[in-house]
Amino acid sequence: KFIEFCLFWEGRINRSDIMNKFGISEPQASGDLSRYQEMAPDNIEYDKSIKCYLATSKFRAVTVKPDANRYLMQLRSISDSVVTTGESWIVRGTEYDVVPTPKRAISAHRLRAILKAIREKNTISIYYQSLSRPDPMWRWVSPHALGFDGFRWHTRAYCHIDNIFKDFLLPRIQGIRGRKKSEICSKSDEAWHSKMIIRIGPHPDLSENQKRVVELDYGMKDATLGITTRKAFLYYVLKRLGLDLPVGTRSAKDQHIVLLNHEEVEDALAVAQQRRAG
Description:
α2 crosses α3. The chain contains 9 helices and 11 strands. It has helices spanning about 1-10, 15-20, 25-40, 70-80, 110-120, 190-195, 210-220, 235-240, 260-270; strands at about 10-15, 45, 50-55, 120-130, 135-150, 155-160, 165-170, 175-180, 195-200, 225-230, 255-260. By secondary structure, it is α+β, with helices and mostly antiparallel strands. A 5-stranded antiparallel β-sheet has the order 7-6-5-4-8, covered by helices on one side. A 3-stranded antiparallel β-sheet has the order 1-3-2. Strands 10-9-11 form a 3-stranded antiparallel β-sheet. The longest helix is centred in the N-terminal third of the chain and has 14 residues, at about 25-40. The protein is globular.
């Protein structure tokens, strides 16, 4: 798979690439290349002038399904220091950069405590700073899942003060103490376990050519795209797509898509009674 990955995305591979990636000997690397040639003889050829194996014009993937998003995610993971270049399959990456996103200061020990509470179905006391209150306070919560809104990680938990399932941002948990067996059933978090489809389409004020390119950009069919999400994530999805404001608030030039099932989404938000972390 590594050989084919390099051939597809980089057009070439040599023995040293395999040796460095897997820590194997030159004879072993040569053997792997020979086996790949037997498996897909029309995919690879050896160029003596540059002493390298090249992808042929007849190349057809046989061991992996090329995925542009997975390739680009590797570049992003390297940029964000999630993985090192040595851990990635990318050998000869092109020049690139990623718009920086500030990293949230999440305590590994507090995250570990949250994970333990989820795993063991415990209720724990957290010292939480909400932006809806001037000072932090201790509160008992029963966490049952983690969530990521595109920018921030939170724990989905039942709050024993507000008597509702809500989201608590991990960086705002300043302390954890005490635990007891939870009497809350996570299945009662209807907003978390229920899903719905958000339907989007090109902004009606765009020209026909502009609408077509938006359709291509989002992979729409018949000028619509359905995005399946948990109802607990509705607010975050709408905000990230710029659909949390009424149509007309932003021009079509800035907001290329619109929400097609607006009433259905509004009703779902009301039923879910989602509360954002303060």
